[in-house]
Structure formats: structure tokens, C-alpha cells
Amino acid sequence: MRALGSPVHDALLRRAIAGTTHRSQVFDRVLAQLQVGKFAAPASASSGIFRRLWRRVARTTPNPAECPPLTGFLAHHPLLGRASPPVRAAIAEAFTPQAFRAGQVLLRQGDADARVLVLAAGQADVLRTIDARGGSMLLGRLEPGALVGVDAFAGAARTASIVATTAGWVHAMTRDTFERLPPAARTAWLEVTLAGSVRRFEAAAQALQAAIGVFASRHEETTPWQATATAPQPAGEAWKQR
């Protein structure tokens, strides 16, 4: 179907992206509940990481000549590197370079921000607020080349904030611009989106499994599945992902 340019192929990709994104969000919500309800949240006196990062500690704007072009990232991407030069060129033209300063919130948790970002220069932290007092958890750090918000076009709200720790540049593509891509380029980006959504789902599943393990070790007497953990299991196929 892909070789024929069938719209059914794109429709299947969009459906798979939506389903994977939804499952990732469910895992994220459960993980957040475990972290808030059972893990030690930062005290109010030490929970100001967002406030410290959001301070306008730098006003300088990088020189546009220092913004690395997007073509290099696309050429080295595992999927887009196999696409034709015209497809990569069309995708590159859909992105707009944008400068940011240190401390700037590039994407905010909870927002339905329909933009995909490619970090071109600078660094940023991935932070998740886990309590009403502003306590936050560092999920990771982003370096140039990172693709951020890959499933934004599925209408999903942001599950974490991206906060710049240095000045730099991003390339940004909006959903409207994406929908105006030539068919071949749009299909190629949908495939990139699905691959990214699957990786995010796998990471969320692993994080949730680790959190459940910690929860169980700390609350053995109240863990409901402890009573049946040693019960004989019927023979049959191993559990499959649904």
C-alpha cells in the first residue's frame, strides 16, 4: 500500500499512532500516581527547580549562522535517511528555526501543543511536575539532534515540560504545515512518528514496571497481588502485549 501511495496506509499509520500514544499516556498517569502517592515528593523548600530554570538568566540570542541545518539530522535519521532527497527536502522546508534562551520553557506539561521540535543547538531538561506544590522530577536531558513531541499531531497533551538549560535553537513544525506536506513526505513523517511513539510506549512500560517493583518492595504487606504471587499458574502461552 505504501508503494502505491494508498490513503489506507496513511490511515492505518494514524490509527496506530493514536493507539500507541493513548497507551503511553495511561502508563504515564499510573506512574505519576505511584510517584505522588507512594514516593517521597520534593519538599516545598527544595521543589523550585522549575522556578530556578524559568528565570530569565540569559537574554542573548544565538547568531542565526550558528543554527545547524536540519538536513544533516534528516540524512542521519534511521528512517528518513532511507527516504529520497526530495522527501527529506520537503520535510526540512516544513520546519522553522527558532531561537531560545536559557530557562525558556519550550514545551509545557499539560498543554496541547501541536508542534514537533528538533533540538539543533543547546541543551534542555525533560521535567515532570508530580505534586501540587510544584515538586518536579528530572526525566532526562536533551542534546542536539533530539526529536521532541513526536506524537504531538495525535492531539495528546504534553506529559512533561521541556526547559532549556542553555541558549540554542530548535527547528519546529506545526500540524498545519505537516498536513500540507506532499503525500510521500507526509507518509514518511507518519512512519517516523509511529516509530517514536512505540519507543515512548516501551520506555513508559519499563518505567512503570520499575516503579511497581519499588512500590511492592516498600509495601509488601499491602500489595494485593502478594497473596497470589506464589499460586500455581496454569500452563499456556506467555502473556502477550495487547
TrEMBL record:
Span of domain Cyclic nucleotide-binding: 79-181
Positions with biased composition (Low complexity): 223-235
Superkingdom to which the source organism belongs: Bacteria
Pfam families: cNMP_binding
InterPro entries: cNMP-bd_dom (IPR000595), cNMP-bd_dom_sf (IPR018490), RmlC-like_jellyroll (IPR014710)
Residue ranges, annotated region (Disordered): 222-242
Protein name, as recorded: Cyclic nucleotide-binding domain-containing protein
Classification of source organism: Bacteria, Pseudomonadati, Myxococcota, Polyangia, Nannocystales
